[in-house]
Amino acid sequence: MLRFEKYEGTGNDFIIFEMSELEGLQYSLLAQKVCDRRFGIGADGMIVVSPSTVASIQMIFYNADGSLATMCGNGIRCFAKYVYDHQLVDTKVFTVETLAGIFNVEIIENEEATSQVCVNMGRPNYFDSSVPTLESGEPFINQVIEIDQVPYTVSSLFMGTIHTVLFVEEIDEFEVVRLGSAIEKHPLYPMKTNVNFCMVIDSNHLEVVTWEKGVGMTLACGTGSVACAFLSQKLYDCEKKIVVQVKGGELVMELLGDEMYMTGPTTFICKGEYLD
To answer: In the chain, what percentage of residues exceed pLDDT 90?
Structure first.
């Protein structure tokens, strides 16, 4: 029996295990099993809590399809509440090692069920190996790709994981599924891409729906919302502090210097034992 806890951050939900529970198990296979919403516990991803030699603690993250992910914005907030509530860290400000690097997090408000967590998400990387390149050496911004012989303007960047953003006048969930799944697997993205549909409401407010690679359409995506905030400031002169409305709630993005800070809720849902 494997002890687990389940958390959600603006509707993005995760199963959390401690590494000591999983000795001898294949994490990728376990993620597929526990994240299954009919035959498992059900979640968008699986998180493993691990010791770190370079940070306060380490987060290992798997998508629902069993693929290893470099980073998850909503996941790291849920992870932060878990390790703080379980006294695996002893301060409200600490560092988390991920495959995308080390992130600074802070527990802003901590209640038994729901907490507010702030994460320094850093700077955008327009030239990561997972992002398409232009011969001119310019970032892949406002570039036209074709889906079913129809042109779409997209921008791609790396925020701990690759994100592609389409700015739209309205969000149509049918198009999110149709275009999201097509762009995710477009030949330009051999490592696949997350796809964000972003509507600029005004200079302080965005609405975002994300098609996550390896998962599908989710209620929220933290790294995707950060990508949309950076691009909306760059392309639409949006303010340095932006409220991002996602299907599962709200995230607040604030640009301090050249780094984006994301603040949002995380809620404990339940705990139990999984019979593997």
So the answer is: 96
Q: Which amino acid is at 275?
A: L
Residues forming beta bridges with residue 146, ordered by sequence position: 151
Active site residues: 72, 221
What is the tens place of the pLDDT at every residue in 50-107? 999 999 999 999 999 999 999 999 999 999 999 999 999 999 999 999 999 999 999 9
| CB-CB contact of 22 with 48 (8 Å) | yes
Q: What is the pTM of this model?
A: 0.94
Statement: 2-122+264-274 belongs to CATH 3.10.310.10: yes
3-state secondary structure 125-178: ECCCCCCCCCCCCCCCCCEEEEECCEEEEEEEEECCCEEEEEECCCCCHHHHHH
Cα 35 to Cα 46: distance, rounded to the nearest angstrom = 7
Cβ pair 70, 192 in contact under 8 A: no
Amino acid at 13: D
Q: Backbone dihedral region of 218: left (phi > 0), alpha (psi from -120 to 50 degrees) or beta?
A: beta
CATH number of 143-255: 3.10.310.10
Say if residue 27 is exposed, middle or buried (CB neighbours under 10 Å; 0-12, 13-18, 19+). middle
- The burial class, CB within 10 Å (0-12 / 13-18 / 19+), for 174 is exposed
- Domain positions in the chain are 2-122+264-274, 143-255
Which residue type occupies 192?
K
